[in-house]
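Key idea: predict the complex, not the pieces.
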Amino acid sequence: MSFTPNARRPSRRKLALALCAGTVCLVSAGFGSALLISGAALAQTELLNVSYDPTRELYKDINAAFVEEWKAKTGETVIVRAAHGGSGSQARTVIDGIPADVVTLGIPSDIDAISRLSKKIPADWRTKLPNEGLPYTSTVVFLVRKGNPKGVKDWGDLVKPDVKVITPNPKTSAGGRWNFLAAWGYAYEKEGKSADKANAFVGQLYKQVPVLDTGARGSTVTFAQRGLGDVLPTWENEAYLVFDEFGRDKFDVVVPPTSIYAEPPVALVDANVDKKGTRKQAEAYLQFLYSDKAQAIFAKHHYRPIKREAAKAEDLAQLPELKLFKIEDLQGNWDDIQKKNFDNGGLFDQLSKPAP
Amino acid sequence: MSSAVAIRPPARPDRAESVVTEGRAVRWGLTGIAILFLALFLVLPLVTVFIQAFAKGWSAYFAAFQEADARSAIRLTLLVAAIAVPFNLVFGVSAAWAIAKFEFRGKNLLVTLIDLPFSVSPVVSGLIYVLVFGSQGLIGPWLIENDIQVIFAVPGIVLATIFVTFPFIARQLIPLMQEQGTAEEEAALTLGASGWHAFRTVTLPNIRWGLLYSVLLCNARAMGEFGAVSVVSGHIRGLTNTLPLHVEILYNEYNFVASFAVASLLAGLALVTLVIKSLLEWRYSADIAAGARRH
Amino acid sequence: MAEPPLRPRRRFRQPSVIPGFGLTFGYTLTCLGVIVLLPLAALVARASGLGLSGIWDVATDPRVASALRVSFGVSLLAALTASVFGFLVAWVLTRYRFPGQKIVDAVVDLPFALPTAVAGIALASLYAPNGLVGEQLAKIGIEAAYTPVGIYIAMVFIGLPFAVRTVQPLIVEIDKEIEEASATLGAGRWHTLVRVVLPPLIPAVLTGFALAFARGVGEYGSIIFIAGNLPYVSEIAPLLIVIKLSEFDYGGACAIATIMLGISFVTLLAINLIQAWSRRRFGYV
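Result:
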């Protein structure tokens, strides 16, 4: 700042001064706080688990259990942080540089995308952990209003003329994609393996969707809190969570005779753990997901554990037997599934075009 | 400001007033419509927030703020506002000075560029910083190489907040300072005051209420920004969640009471802002009116 | 200090005795450059990777075109509503006296200060079919939430303060004597309003309209909660950017963003030219 009176013309020196002042201000504003945060982070080992939306409650329990076990085993205190959001947008934050140690996403194609677009995860991530990186699986069931007034029993009932379906946008939600694929798979099997008829069935189903929320949680709120629609096809674990949160007296869960084998996979973000020096802890975290203790927690939260013997009988009783089909068996590998159905110009885009 | 136009006391109230205003029925009618409209579109949503927040009583309301995540969200929000608002204050005053007190070419373009963040979609406001600082971005790879995390950390949130609130103070001050012209400053300078001195003793008193109010609004907006921050935050619990993001998280966890309780904190902030503004106008109305009449 | 010929600078800026132009102008440009222009340039650069024809392809893709139509169309309607009622509110607030006026005046700024996500959630719970207002509307056959009407409501909400606050100071400034003169010369009240009072206010009304419009087009946070988000029906352009990003299609997202940015920029430039013109014509903003 100049205190000289009558400094009338902008001199070069002043302009330079202004530029310096501006830059200093910006840099201090921006990076001063970065140091503040990273300073705090250095003190302890921190793991970041970037996960999809419905697992908030699950990973609260899992993380606490892991921290306790790791402390008992090694004496080291780790902090496990969680970030939740739509599966696709979570994958994008990893691609754009969030320092995630592990990803636990809703659908395999999102981890494939991280691997393809950022190389932070090796392409053969499925082979690194047991059961193709799936510590648990899930499926899609229906949540209906108490007493099931529209008589929804199976996927075919979703396209009855007076039934309104609430489901999230498959473009932005992994749960939305499983719903889409489950409906398609049902029709494909039912209509003698005719892809055209399956496409038509799914097209009709989405014509009966009045609200397309961006995430599974948004759809649940629309259905449960706002009272829209007659049926909410959703993750099995979400359906039971709604029971707990909104009260069992308002809704019923309908388990259809067949549904999809939903695969929410986990993977290590190799590039990040090597950079942060957290490989040991991150790998242990992922291994922990396959331990008996974690498997029991999965069952408690209504996910389907891969080691059923580790879970409590009363939790398993909540996970009814039904015929599950794998979408890979019907449509090929995940690259094809993603491209054919959900990429720009894919099946969902074609089906949502208004009739000419 | 409205108090500056007190209708002058007319000799014959009814007659004199009637030529410069509408009939009584029209007046009440229009007032009614305006209030009804505001009530329906603005007040009702606000009331809803508070009703939902207190749906399960006081203890449930306060329980929402006991949680560690809520506290860290409050801390982060305060930190972000503490950086973003002073930055925009300095920028706003400096921009208003350059634009209002001088005539130069391309001024309209400059003002438009300052306005631009008003109309950029919040989603885009976040996206642009991802494009610069993301690991696929322009300088992101270099930053990450050097262990500097900008997006998905506090600096990114600060940057996005500064961007969104960028025009607030400048935009409020420019017309104010333009209206006041340059005569007083010129007089001060002629009497031998330095530029800084002239600014402090002549310009600042003239604009202080506008300045204060714009800082309050800027602050409310900085604390309340959702869209842009949501893109650059990464949603790491206890680390990069601001209050508005925490509202969304609680909402998505079906914890509606806590969600609206935190929201009511932000709405309360908005209300306090408005109350302070009104108080200032009421307390200093004579001052402001005098300032407005001087020209 | 030797003063070399200042011809080019003088042409750029009219001389003035007031100091600090270099400092403040330089600082303004630095901040503007680093905070606003550089990142926006990165956006345009990313979009231009598609080439002009690529951007055109994105813009004319039926889904994108329909989202842009929804965003711009509904925003236009909402800005119109906000302008009409905003003018009314501004008029009532400055010209009439009624109890609680100060409170009403303060309430106008609420959407500036209320976080958009909170506004969205509150509006959705009000206008949903089981909400306080939605229930009444449903009785007369209007579905508000989860239709384009919902988008409209949210846009009016966020646009209203712009419309009020740009007009209000000008109504304060109106010289009553002109109105008196008009009345004395035998003009009716309505005639005076339309012919004498309104014309100088038009630039300000336009400014408020354009600001509300530009803000509505870009709005995301409050709308996604209350719009149905159905493709071709109630899907807004910013949501489509989010969707493109979920598909990892950065180019497409940037292309839509650039198109919106271009339109906003032109709108804003037009406003500022109107204001500059009105300042010359009427002597105030």
